[in-house]
Amino acid sequence: MLLALWKERKGRHGVCLIYQRLLKLKSVFVELVLRYAFKCHRKTEAGRDIVYPVNSIAFHPIYGGTFATGGCDGFVNIWDGNNKKRLYQYSKYPTSISALSFSRDGQLLAVASSYTFEEGEKSYEPEAIFVRNVNEIEVKPKPKVYPNPAA
């Protein structure tokens, strides 16, 4: 189980609990305001839904509602938490994502790729740390679109 804390610009605090899917809780002085879940690291294969554990989460320092998740599927996903949508998925890394961290200015993302023994003892790729440039289009939330009421 993994726990992450952050403070948003408006003074609200949040908590993230990761356990095979990401549960994001926002609170104002411990009172829950909003609760939702992302089914973020999964795929369908032969008609079966395969769920991969989420190992890491990193919040973007500039765009408060944007965060990255890394899982045992080897993918890093960038999420718009306010609109509950995936913004971007990076190409697959050699093995599980064990840690993520944005630079202070949000222009770099460090990705640790390391087998986390989710499938037991087996041969695996060597551990590696990748530092990638982050483009604004990958992390900037899209404006929320509201449906036009029928006239």
Automatic annotation (TrEMBL):
Determine if Repeat is one of this entry's keywords.
yes
Repeat (WD) positions are 54-89
Enumerate the UniProt keywords alphabetically.
Repeat, WD repeat
- Gene3D superfamilies found in the cross-reference section: YVTN repeat-like/Quinoprotein amine dehydrogenase
Q: Which domain of life is it from?
A: Eukaryota
SUPFAM superfamilies named among the record's database cross-references:
WD40 repeat-like (SSF50978)
Q: Which PROSITE patterns match?
A: WD_REPEATS_2
Q: Does the keyword Repeat apply?
A: yes
Q: What is this protein called?
A: Mitotic checkpoint protein BUB3.1-like isoform X1
Lineage per the UniProt record: Eukaryota, Viridiplantae, Streptophyta, Embryophyta, Tracheophyta
